[in-house]
Amino acid sequence: MTLSSPAFASDGPIPVTHSHASGDISPELRWSGVPAACRELALSCEDPDAPGGTFVHWMLAGISPDRERLAAGEERPQIARGRNDFGDLGYGGPQPPAGDPPHRYVFTLYALQWPSGLTSGFSMDDMRTALKDKVLVTATLVGTYAR
After folding, report:
1. 60, 120, 138, 146: which could form a disulfide with 43 (CB 3.0–4.6 Å)?
2. CA 44, CA 100: separation in Å to the nearest integer?
3. Are residues 32 and 4 in contact, defined by beta-carbon separation less than 8 angstroms?
4. What are the tens digits of pLDDT across the range 89-113?
């Protein structure tokens, strides 16, 4: 399975339009190679370089396995949105401390063999528990951002 974005290249800079300061508009994501046995897709975006430890920027669950993309800013009502570490539901764009070297933002798409059962408002701990023993395959895309 592969994951990409027309907004930025793998290991490339995420455009400021997708940052926290610019209104938290998620980048378009595209994927392919979803296994036939997949029953649900889930997504996360985390900053492992955050000063206080890994910072969760985005979590989605309940994405139909026949989907091949999410448009920029797309979070449909039937897709469960997790609570990010800003305390909001849905996408919270990059906002590393000013002057830090570029942080990495790791987008991970999970193909699940069983439905996760997650509903909007879930935490990263909820997601980890729900995905345990259900993941068929993952795909990652890393972008960078600095202020």
Report:
1. 60
2. 23
3. no
4. 999 999 999 999 999 999 999 999 9
* Predicted TM-score of the model (pTM): 0.97
Nearest C-alpha neighbor of 28 from the set 146, 88, 107? 107
DSSP symbol at 31: E
- Yes or no: say if 69 and 28 are a contact pair by the CB < 8 Å rule: yes
- φ, ψ of residue 117 to 5 degrees: the values are 80, 5
How does 52-72 read in b/e, with b if 16+ C-beta sit within 10 Å? eeebbbbbbbbbeeeeeebee
| Whether the Cβ atoms of residue 93 and residue 27 lie closer than 8 Å to each other | no
* Cα 135 to Cα 109: distance, rounded to the nearest angstrom: 10
Closest by alpha carbon to 25, among 2, 9, 7? Answer: 7
Name the token pair of 95. 């906002």
